[in-house]
Amino acid sequence: MNGVTGRMGYRQHLLRSILALRDQGGLALGDGTVLWPEPVLLGRREHALREIAERHGLEHVSTDLDAVLADPDVDIYFDAQVTAAREEALRKAIAAGKHVYTEKPTATGLDGALELARLAREKGVRHGVVQDKLFLPGLLKLKRLVDGGFFGKILSVRGEFGYWVFEGDWQQAQRPSWNYRAEDGGGIVLDMFPHWEYVLHELFGRVTSVQALTATHVPRRWDEHGRPYTATADDAAYGIFELDGGVVAQINSSWAVRVHRDELVEFQVDGTEGSAVAGLRDCRVQHRSATPKPVWNPDVPAGERFRDQWQEVPDNGEFDNGFKAQWELFLKHVYAGAPYRWDLPAGARGVQLAELGLKSAAEGRRLAVPEIAP
Questions:
Q1: Chain center to CA of 242
Q2: What is the per-residue pLDDT across 111-135, written as a single tens digit (0 to 9) for each?
Q3: pTM higher than 0.90, yes or no?
Q4: Category of 4 on φ-ψ map: left (φ > 0), alpha (ψ -120 to 50) or beta
């Protein structure tokens, strides 16, 4: 596990996925087999790795990627490093014959992402890309509505994502400084457009065109050591996506926006028969038969709260941590060949959309998104 000293690598992948699997006694396959994940903590800062290992009673720590990849007892290489370091490490892991599971984006450009997919196919290793939002309760409920035909003909999707990331001068930033340096693989387009690609693709249809406007709203920030630096990467992106079947999606992504919504990301889906608003955990609906009749009258106060006119979608089941749920599927895929479709070609689609989004913003025009063969 490379990159476990970072926030996502530690909290979501190590603590809430791999260690959570161990806490429940391993991953039972239903035939008497139990998989027991034994993590090797890999990174550049040995003292930080050893502190994590001691905290959780783990044995294996290394700062030598090549040595870990040469170890025959290591079956899977997982990458949650900074984006700029990911592609080279994945190439090495594939060359060493390891199955690979990785955060997104898989590379900083489409050519690199496609090359990783080709190398993995030729080497015969299994491969997966983290697409965690598909496994979150709010979007699982939304998918249930889509699959059940609740919306009728889907017309549009509106997404709002983001929060205010502190500049780092008088209050510590919630995100690492490399996120705001393009030369280090930073930028909200490269970070978030791969997410929007798989969410749109899986729930509503393949993205066929993109038109984006990017901005660096906060040009001066302070790093982890309190030193000022110039932000060279985009911290906000405003995208319009056309999907197969005519659905139009608009998604705003920003690290320079203050939150006035129920969750940090929300999607509103409007269809001929009904609408829904889904976040990470909750989902609310308004059916055609229960849609009120608003009348525009700015001369009098609104007599009702529009949010109160929506109905909560029940859980109707238990939802596990989304990262853990996908880890379980990938481990079953590696060990038993269980079906798994969130692979390196799927990850390449996300890189493609980010690349075309940045190109669209630079050139000020809408761009077609060619289909990537499986």
A1: 20
A2: 999 999 999 999 999 999 999 999 9
A3: yes
A4: alpha
